[in-house]
Amino acid sequence: MERPLTQNIHAGRQPLTLKEYTATGGYTALQQVLKNMTPGEVQQLVQESRLKGRGGAGFNTGMKWSFVPMGEDAPSPKYLIANADEMEPGTFKDRLLLEGNPHQLIEGMIIAAYAIQANISYVFLRWAYKKAAQALEQSIREAYHAGWLGKNIMNAGFSLDMYLHTGAGRYMCGEETALLNALEGKRATPRAKPPFPQVSGLFGKPTIVNNVETLCCIPHIVNKGAAWFQNLSYSEDGGTKIYGVSGKVNNPGAWELPMGVTMRELVEEHAGGMKKGYRLKGVLPGGASTDFLTEQHLDIKMDFKSVTAAGSRLGTGTMVVMDDATCPVGFVHNLQHFFAQESCGWCTPCREGLPWVEKILWAIEEGRGKEEDIELLQMHTQLLGPGNTFCALAPGAMEPLQSAIKYYREDFDRHIREKKCSY
Amino acid sequence: MLSEEEIQDIDHEAAKLPYKKAAVIEALKIVQQRRGWINDETVRDIADCLEMSPAEVDSVATFYNLIFRKPVGRHVILLCDSISCYVMGYKNIYEALQQKLKIKFGETTADQRFTLLPNACLGCCDHAPALMINGNLYKDISIEALDDVLSEYN
Q: What distance in Å separates the CA atoms of residue A28 and residue A103, rounded to the nearest whole number?
């Protein structure tokens, strides 16, 4: 089984230096692109590979690039941004790529920048990833030194600068348009769309924001082709995927596997099954803002379409397992506390609704819940749902809530009936 | 007053950006790194330096979790309270820290040694529970390990 993204990443060792990365075939894709391909051809190739965004939304990457104005009349400068603000609770996949092989990301970014003809690029890194920050700083310096960054790269007439920006801690920064505001030194509130960032993004210029894992796929697609990339996958979405499992399993971790492995394979084989004495009660398949799935769903494929068909979302592909000794009400309260705290406060349903939801859940958990509270929570899942807010934070927060009420209703009712939490 | 060195560092960041204001988050981080937290005077000084109003600077300073607008102790403990750490029992770690340090979340010990804060997901979910002190990450943290960890910071 091929693991293009992580084949050269080994736990416990230092990130690959430029020399080591080059020895594994690094920067050959960039040379190929600069010498033999037009920006349009790169966009076309990536579109054909069926690479979908790995940050959670799952949009075709090449298609996203194709919305950027090209040609001599296009606004300038254009920007390419790597979203490395990984902060979705339960998600730790990009960290592996950032700490293990930063040049792979840098090469992917240069090729992506070439494809949209951007001359300035940023890595937006979350503050907590100290090790990744060091590795990136060092690698960007090396890349400049070797002539992979800077003016007139390889005498091909293409120039690119790259900067590392570390955030100051706020979940909102991972949202594409809020990230742009953060980079501009503002409060990280989302922007109304349209205009979309591809047309008017950072400092009002055309901008592409791609997730780290997405960008790391690019050099491999160039080297081995779109058909090869599609064939890595067990599903219609191309490529491998970095999946992760956390919770009370024997071997929590992250692994690069063909896109579309089953949840059962992830939990039972790679994560080593549940710890002794615990049963699996539910999972959030792709981070805190995805709907619960349960034991009955273990055989579904972890790809964008299949997880959606089962009533949830692939999201980031890093799952959180809820065991039978963990109270579902307390679990969901913890999630809503996070979302309420991280709401940027820009739009009313999110700013006012999430703290209310958090309070209701806490009351139920403490034995002060009333029967009508369930209806009140269900009403919130509608009012804070898609279409009522500027960004996906509140609708995302409602996903685990609505599905918890669906699958664990008896737990909610019992708290209210017995006026206590029995876990 | 901002020090010469602080102004130099802020100017260095601002030079990379199309306009000065865009460097405000960096400016806040630069000053906080030296002084521990951002007081009202600093807000005004940064505003002068970047040609913004103090209210604009404060709107940014109060938005980000890791910019401190109140004094903190010599060492800041960030305990992850997000979902994987919740499942793996961060609350037990919190209780133990409360007993040892006699402070709750948001408080600083009387000797100014530690400030204890909750923190959203540290991205260390496969080694939960996790905490961070002064930027150093501690994984798979247990109550038994706490004394050793805390003793590294005086």
A: 12
Which DSSP letter does residue A121 get?
A: E
Could you identify the residue written with the tokens 């990365």? A21
Are residues A245 and B126, on separate chains, in Cβ contact within 8 Å?
yes
Q: Among B22, B64, B67, whose Cβ lies nearest the Cβ of A184?
A: B22
CA distance A20 to A43: 28
Residue B86 Cα, gap to closest chain A Cα (Å): 7
Is A187 close to B60, i.e. CB distance below 8 A?
yes
Which residues numbered 61-80 in A keep a CB inside 8 Å of some CB on B? none
A284 contacts B123? CB cut-off 8 A: no
Determine whether the interchain pair A330/B22 forms a contact, defined as Cβ–Cβ distance below 8 Å.
no
What ipTM score was computed for the predicted complex, to two decimals?
0.96
Return the residue of B nearest to A204 by Cα. Answer: B18
Assess contact for A187 and A181: CB atoms under 8 A. yes
Nearest to B24 by CA among B39, B5, B53: B53
pLDDT exceeds 90 at position B16: no
CA distance B57 to chain A (A): 9
User: Are A170 and A176 contacting, i.e. CB atoms less than 8 angstroms apart?
Assistant: no
At A8-28, the pLDDT tens digits run 998 888 999 999 999 999 999
The distance from CA A245 to its chain's CA centroid, rounded to whole angstroms, is 15
Residues with Cβ within 8 Å of A173's Cβ and at least 6 positions away in sequence, in order, are A85, A87, A124, A126, A167, A179, A182, A188
Spatial separation of the C-alpha atoms in residues A186 and A208, rounded to whole Å: 19
CB A114 within 8 Å of CB A42:
yes
The model's pTM is 0.96
